[in-house]
Amino acid sequence: MHASKYLKTIMQSTQFTRNRLVYALMVVIAFVLALGSREIPEMLPDFIVKYAGDTLWALMTFLFIGFLFPSLSMLKVAAITLLLAFCIEFSQLYRAPWINELRSNRLVALVTGRGFLWSDLVCYIVGVAAGVLGEMGWNKFYVGNQQHVDS
For residue range 98-143, what is the model confidence (pLDDT) as tens digits? Predict the structure, then answer.
């Protein structure tokens, strides 16, 4: 199958169902890595400290949506993730005292963020792209090989 045909098929179809156990594990790994990038900044390069958390947050969200809706197409999971991430990021432009107070809580801030940055939007795109590429690779090599074994 040509690459463009494969990409179109995999992005628009629900030929596969995500393994919830695998996705749950990947969500936890992405979460731990994202927190780690914020908790041990002195041990990591500045570039990683600055951008890894938001990129991994988007990847984790992509994986979590895939976990919740295992038969949803990759394109829909990516679109929902980006829509959610962009809405949350743009909501940070709203700076009323009551919401700033909520954002001062660490758990709330992990979900909502604290301030708008254009670079965060790029991180979200990169994180979702990593999720899409990971799923494509998984489907091409693992699921494709399983189909050959089963036939």
Answer: 988 988 888 888 788 888 989 999 999 999 999 999 999 888 877 6
User: Tens digit of pLDDT for each residue in 27-41?
Assistant: 999 999 988 888 888
CA pseudo-torsion sign 69, 136, 139, 128 = negative
Question: What type of residue sits at position 57?
Answer: W
Count Cα atoms within 13 angstroms, Cβ side, for 131.
34
Structure tokens at 98: 């009551």
> In sequence order, what are the residues at sequence separation of 6 or more whose Cβ sits closer than 8 angstroms to the Cβ of residue 147?
none
Half-sphere exposure (Cβ direction) of 108: Cα atoms closer than 13 Å: 11
**Main-chain phi, psi angles of 93, to 5 degrees:** -75, -20
Q: Under a CB-based contact definition with an 8 Å cutoff, are residues 12 and 84 in contact? A: no
Domain ranges of the chain: 3-150
DSSP strands (E only) in the chain? none
Half-sphere exposure of residue 141: CA atoms within 13 angstroms, side-chain side: 6
Direct distance between the N- and C-terminal alpha carbons of the chain, in angstroms, rounded to an integer: 18
SS3 of residue 113 by DSSP: coil
CA 110, CA 90: separation in Å to the nearest integer? 15
